[in-house]
């Protein structure tokens, strides 16, 4: 009986200190990341990509997503259309072809500092061989959003 109670106590301690996100792996980039211009993607963690000053990007249907599921952690991505987020590692997202009054100069995608991602946004066709990329495409935007990529330096 003492052994049973001891095992029960150990199990209770183990369950109270186990947090699945602590042991889950990070999503693989770019294989487990997607950009969607049609809303969130089922089975993925998504962050809304929005620019309220831009008539195409203010509608809220653009998302950058990472695969979700057992054993895969949420990478904690945060979007900002008003400068980088304090306490996070942030990467500027800028499309110079957009009109200046659409305010794409202050948009950032941020991740926690413990994230393995070191991202870079390319607003032209990327040919940088040391990066792996996910295309960001918004077909309804006339300002060259067909050649943009979010890349991670391995």
From TrEMBL:
User: Which first-to-last residue range defines the signal peptide?
Assistant: 1-16
Q: Which UniProt keywords apply?
A: Signal
Q: What is this protein called?
A: Cnidarian restricted protein
Organism source for this protein? Clytia hemisphaerica
